[in-house]
Specification:
The complex is a heterodimer of chains A (114) and B (117). Chain A has 114 residues and is an all-beta fold. Helices cover 0% and strands 49% of the residues of chain A. Classes of the chains: A mainly beta (114), B mainly beta (117). The interface between A and B is medium-sized, with 30 and 25 residues.
Chain lengths: 114, 117
């Protein structure tokens, strides 16, 4: 069964450093998303992406964040200068355009900013 | 803005028994989707069940079923014959239908389900 994959599974970084989180969505999906979950809190939407551009972004997704689909398979989230409060689980998700508009999630990347 | 409310932070059920998790939502849309996701200790988000708002019939997936009350904006999850592996955090989520753009999921705060012997 096709699945969304994410790398790395864990990342530890120093405050102020840049990090890139990588995702490989399900191959025939057209819509891509990033969500984050701070420990003990609910899952929050960051950004959605379709047709090589951002469809929607939340207030969390400020100028420190960017997304890219550098090739036909990868979808990345970059945080330019990490803050302590960026420590969270980051989930990538994808969905197709058809009737089954379910978003399928990857296993997440656990980011810890020290 | 759409909101999703899960009023039960924690629930407990004995193995083989039935439990119902509550979810209410607020929206002005007439067409939308509702989901229940399970998050075990590994923290991966796993789809449990989905419901299209235009369908009157409640969705079922094996031991999981929903009670969808559109007028009341209520979407509860019933787990029958509970198993130890059902222990997890359960999130209710709402989504507007795609209209040429990628629409986000709005999640509730979650209900932690414990399954006891």
């Amino acid at each position: 069964e096709p699945e969304v994959t994410q790398t790395p599974s864990h990342q530890v970084t120093q405050m102020g450093q840049e990090v890139i989180l990588r995702c490989v969505p399900i191959s025939n999906h057209l819509y891509f998303y990033w969500y984050r979950q701070i420990l003990g809190q609910k899952v929050e939407f960051l950004v959605s992406f379709y047709n090589n551009e951002i469809s929607e972004k939340s207030e969390i997704f400020d100028d420190q964040f960017s997304v890219e689909r550098p090739d036909g398979s990868n979808f990345t989230l970059k945080i330019r200068s990490t803050k302590l409060e960026d420590s969270a689980m980051y989930f990538c998700a994808s969905s197709d355009r058809g009737y089954q508009e379910t978003q399928y999630f990857g296993p997440g990347t656990r980011l810890l900013v020290l | 803005a759409q909101t999703v409310t899960q009023s039960q932070p924690e629930m407990s059920v004995q193995e083989a028994e039935t439990v119902t998790l509550s979810c209410t939502y607020d929206t002005s849309e007439s067409d939308y989707y509702l989901f229940w996701y399970k998050q075990p200790p590994s923290r991966q988000m796993i789809l449990v069940i989905r419901q299209e708002a235009y369908k009157q019939q409640n969705a079922t997936e094996n031991r999981f079923s929903v009670n969808f009350q559109k007028a009341a904006k209520s979407f509860s999850l019933k787990i029958s014959d509970s198993q130890l592996g059902d222990a997890a955090m359960y999130f209710c989520a709402y989504r507007t239908p795609l209209g040429g753009t990628a629409s986000k999921l709005t999640f509730g705060t979650g209900t932690r389900l414990q399954v006891t012997l």
